Amino acid sequence: MWNVLLSFSGLVALIQLLFLPFFPESPPYLLLQKEDKAGCLKAMKQLWGEENYQTEFDDLMKEKAITKGTKIMNVLEVLRERSVYPQLCTMLLLLLSLQLCGLKIFQTANLQESIIPYVSLGVSISELISIIFCSSIIDRFGRRRLLCGGYLLMAMILVLLEASLLLSDRFLWLRYCSVILIFLFIIAYGIGP
């Protein structure tokens, strides 16, 4: 029943994809990143109703003033910063544990047992690459667009993955498509959600 479980995550991604466009952007994102005061106030009213949010807005303006001189660090600068090493080590351990994911799918795809560890390692590397790539483009595109695109890609990839696994007994080349689709799913997840 693992394929039902896999399909369930696709269903959740599809539901989130359908409803996400109806939600406003985050007020702190609009004010601090986009410097859109009117959009920030409009988003506050959409999220919390028609009230006076001047106190919250003033708090965001204070935060903006405090962080005005703060430089946003890129990935390499974060890797050089010693104060974040414990968090980086935790994240790295989580990424390395992804080597175990997809083993059942790889076995179902009838891949040779000797190849499966290398494919699992590739999944972890894909996750790491997608996280680094996402952190460099999130300010340019915004979280909302990345979430919508990521969920849409994940839903399409899961449909294709399910089809390729069901047909892998008839067409042997679909086994390798399943592996490629898993890599693409991991990348879409890392870039979006």
UniProtKB/TrEMBL annotation:
Its main location: membrane. The chain crosses the membrane at residues 6-24, 115-134, 146-167, 173-192. It comes from the Eukaryota. It is a multi-pass membrane protein. InterPro entries: GLUT (IPR045263), MFS_dom (IPR020846), MFS_sugar_transport-like (IPR005828), MFS_trans_sf (IPR036259). One of its GO terms (biological process) is dehydroascorbic acid transport. It is found in: Membrane. GO terms for cellular component: plasma membrane. Residues 1-193 form the Major facilitator superfamily (MFS) profile domain. One of its GO terms (molecular function) is D-glucose transmembrane transporter activity. This is GTR9 protein. The keyword NAD does not apply. Keywords: Membrane, Transmembrane, Transmembrane helix.
